[in-house]
């Protein structure tokens, strides 16, 4: 069968149309993919921005917490010591040299204790640079401070000797630790606080447990009572980690934070 | 005089005009070189019409010469487009050497009388692949470019449409060159190339315009 010229014309035109449509679709596809790339870049930038905002917030909260502790310490500890010193010095009677010597010695002792407390406070003020000591050092320092009150039995275990410095993640984890610890102090009515810090398979695992009153996790979360809980969950997600709450009324609380490090 | 005004010459001269207006102050030498290339294209087209219509001679050898310039310019342009992403100077040298070899062999086998359509077909395939590779580089690049106003993208679009679209005519070259179908006053090949030329030069003109706007916006923001 012989193909006519008209048929050849039709055939060639058809092939040419198909061959023109193919690049057209390709151009549309490349354009679409490129738009998705733009969206992805924007999303990444937005995530980075919110991480930086959250980090800044964490840094400010760490500072705020430090100032609160200082205010508490000045009022309840140093203030009282200095008050006692004033009372002791005020009660000295010069005509009774024996008692006066005793009271002066007592006032001197109170003044020395005040100086010691102020030095410790000064160290805490430097605690604004707490993170520069590294996460392990910062946690140990915070626990020392809480332990000073002698209200809690604190046990701290860690299999880590050194951690590579990652300022952003360290600040976030430290703030999570600080928030959890202060939640225990404020609400848990605990006697014992147990902290574990482990580094397993590139995962940093921080576990904070107490023997306090515990709480109903689902109820607290649903009633939005625990803004702290949501905050913890949000921040842990931001550093790509996971958090588990093991708690029930009357059974204490264990919070475990695992994050890639 | 009117015989010089064809769809091809009109669109080529229009593109040359756009190139002159948009690219004469361009800092990028390869884009500026487009003006010379288009000038040469227009010269070839007009000369080919003159040879065929006035002197009644074959103009195929003219297109043989043009093929050399075409290959050299388009290949170098692609090389400069790739340069932003990868450096493939060895590829360019290798490809041009291979092309020169095929071209010479075909010329010799044709006794310098016929158009080197096999080499032209190979050229089309190579430029289609080069265009696809450019798309791949765009997709792979982490940086985002607004493609609707990105000059290299539109330059490559035009090139891909032209060379991919001309594949069928290249395949049937032998038949079409002798096409004497009475119901159609001009050969199908000529018609198809009219359409392809319009698409190619429209895309290129738009690319030149984008390049001009890009240069204007960058110079005003400095």
TrEMBL record, chain A:
<feature type="transmembrane region" description="Helical">
    <location>
        <begin position="12"/>
        <end position="32"/>
    </location>
</feature>
<dbReference type="InterPro" id="IPR036890">
    <property type="entry name" value="HATPase_C_sf"/>
</dbReference>
<keyword id="KW-0902">Two-component regulatory system</keyword>
<dbReference type="GO" id="GO:0051539">
    <property type="term" value="F:4 iron, 4 sulfur cluster binding"/>
</dbReference>
<keyword id="KW-0411">Iron-sulfur</keyword>
<dbReference type="GO" id="GO:0005737">
    <property type="term" value="C:cytoplasm"/>
</dbReference>
<comment type="function">
    <text>Member of the two-component regulatory system NreB/NreC involved in the control of dissimilatory nitrate/nitrite reduction in response to oxygen. NreB functions as a direct oxygen sensor histidine kinase which is autophosphorylated, in the absence of oxygen, probably at the conserved histidine residue, and transfers its phosphate group probably to a conserved aspartate residue of NreC. NreB/NreC activates the expression of the nitrate (narGHJI) and nitrite (nir) reductase operons, as well as the putative nitrate transporter gene narT.</text>
</comment>
<keyword id="KW-0408">Iron</keyword>
<dbReference type="GO" id="GO:0000155">
    <property type="term" value="F:phosphorelay sensor kinase activity"/>
</dbReference>
<dbReference type="InterPro" id="IPR005467">
    <property type="entry name" value="His_kinase_dom"/>
</dbReference>
<protein>
    <recommendedName>
        <fullName>Oxygen sensor histidine kinase NreB</fullName>
        <ecNumber>2.7.13.3</ecNumber>
    </recommendedName>
</protein>
<dbReference type="InterPro" id="IPR011712">
    <property type="entry name" value="Sig_transdc_His_kin_sub3_dim/P"/>
</dbReference>
<keyword id="KW-0472">Membrane</keyword>
<dbReference type="GO" id="GO:0046983">
    <property type="term" value="F:protein dimerization activity"/>
</dbReference>
<dbReference type="Pfam" id="PF02518">
    <property type="entry name" value="HATPase_c"/>
</dbReference>
<dbReference type="GO" id="GO:0016020">
    <property type="term" value="C:membrane"/>
</dbReference>
<dbReference type="InterPro" id="IPR004358">
    <property type="entry name" value="Sig_transdc_His_kin-like_C"/>
</dbReference>
<keyword id="KW-1133">Transmembrane helix</keyword>
<keyword id="KW-0479">Metal-binding</keyword>
<dbReference type="GO" id="GO:0046872">
    <property type="term" value="F:metal ion binding"/>
</dbReference>
<dbReference type="Pfam" id="PF07730">
    <property type="entry name" value="HisKA_3"/>
</dbReference>
<keyword id="KW-0004">4Fe-4S</keyword>
TrEMBL record, chain B:
<protein>
    <recommendedName>
        <fullName>YhhN-like protein</fullName>
    </recommendedName>
</protein>
<keyword id="KW-1133">Transmembrane helix</keyword>
<feature type="transmembrane region" description="Helical">
    <location>
        <begin position="36"/>
        <end position="55"/>
    </location>
</feature>
<feature type="transmembrane region" description="Helical">
    <location>
        <begin position="91"/>
        <end position="108"/>
    </location>
</feature>
<feature type="transmembrane region" description="Helical">
    <location>
        <begin position="190"/>
        <end position="209"/>
    </location>
</feature>
<feature type="transmembrane region" description="Helical">
    <location>
        <begin position="6"/>
        <end position="24"/>
    </location>
</feature>
<keyword id="KW-0812">Transmembrane</keyword>
<feature type="transmembrane region" description="Helical">
    <location>
        <begin position="120"/>
        <end position="139"/>
    </location>
</feature>
<feature type="transmembrane region" description="Helical">
    <location>
        <begin position="61"/>
        <end position="82"/>
    </location>
</feature>
<keyword id="KW-0472">Membrane</keyword>
<feature type="transmembrane region" description="Helical">
    <location>
        <begin position="160"/>
        <end position="178"/>
    </location>
</feature>
């Amino acid at each position: 069968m012989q193909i006519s010229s008209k048929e050849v014309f039709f055939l060639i035109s058809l092939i040419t149309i198909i061959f023109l449509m193919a690049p057209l679709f390709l151009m549309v596809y490349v354009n679409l993919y490129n738009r998705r790339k733009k969206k992805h870049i924007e999303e990444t930038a937005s995530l980075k921005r919110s991480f930086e905002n959250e980090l800044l917030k964490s840094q400010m909260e760490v500072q705020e917490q430090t100032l609160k502790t200082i205010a508490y310490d000045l009022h309840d500890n140093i203030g009282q010591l200095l008050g006692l010193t004033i009372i002791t010095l005020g009660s000295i009677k010069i005509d009774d040299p024996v008692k006066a010597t005793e009271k002066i010695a007592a006032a001197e002792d109170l003044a020395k204790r005040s100086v010691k407390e102020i030095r410790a406070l000064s160290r805490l003020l430097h605690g604004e640079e707490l993170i520069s000591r590294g996460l392990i050092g910062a946690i140990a320092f915070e626990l020392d401070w809480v332990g000073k009150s002698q209200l809690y039995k604190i046990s701290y275990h860690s299999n880590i000797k050194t951690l590579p410095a990652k300022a952003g993640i360290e600040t976030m984890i430290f703030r999570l630790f600080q928030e959890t610890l202060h939640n225990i102090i404020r609400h848990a009515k605990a006697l014992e606080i147990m902290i574990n810090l482990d580094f397993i398979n590139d995962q940093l695992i921080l576990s904070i447990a107490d023997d306090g009153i515990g709480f109903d996790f689902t109820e607290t979360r649903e009633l939005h009572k625990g803004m702290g809980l949501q905050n913890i969950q949000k921040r842990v997600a931001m550093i790509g980690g996971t958090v588990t709450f093991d708690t029930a009324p009357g059974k204490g609380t264990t919070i475990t934070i695992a994050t890639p490090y | 005089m009117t015989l010089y005004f064809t769809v091809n010459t009109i669109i080529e001269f229009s593109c040359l005009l756009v190139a002159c207006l948009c690219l004469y102050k361009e800092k990028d030498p390869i884009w500026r070189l487009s003006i010379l290339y288009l000038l040469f294209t227009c010269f070839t087209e007009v000369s080919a019409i003159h040879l065929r219509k006035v002197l009644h001679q074959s103009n195929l050898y003219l297109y043989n010469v043009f093929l050399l310039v075409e290959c050299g310019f388009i290949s170098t342009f692609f090389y400069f487009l790739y340069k932003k992403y990868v450096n493939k100077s060895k590829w360019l040298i290798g490809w041009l050497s291979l092309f020169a070899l095929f071209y010479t062999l075909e010329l010799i086998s044709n006794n310098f009388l016929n158009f080197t359509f096999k080499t032209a077909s190979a050229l089309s395939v190579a430029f289609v692949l080069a265009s696809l590779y450019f798309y791949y580089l765009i997709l792979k690049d982490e940086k985002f470019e607004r493609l609707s106003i990105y000059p290299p993208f539109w330059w490559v679009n035009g090139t891909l449409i032209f060379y991919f679209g001309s594949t069928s005519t290249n395949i049937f070259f032998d038949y079409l060159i002798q096409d004497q179908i009475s119901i159609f006053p001009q050969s199908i090949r000529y018609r198809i190339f009219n359409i392809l030329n319009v698409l190619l030069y429209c895309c290129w003109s738009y690319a030149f315009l984008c390049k001009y706007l890009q240069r204007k916006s960058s110079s005003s923001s400095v």
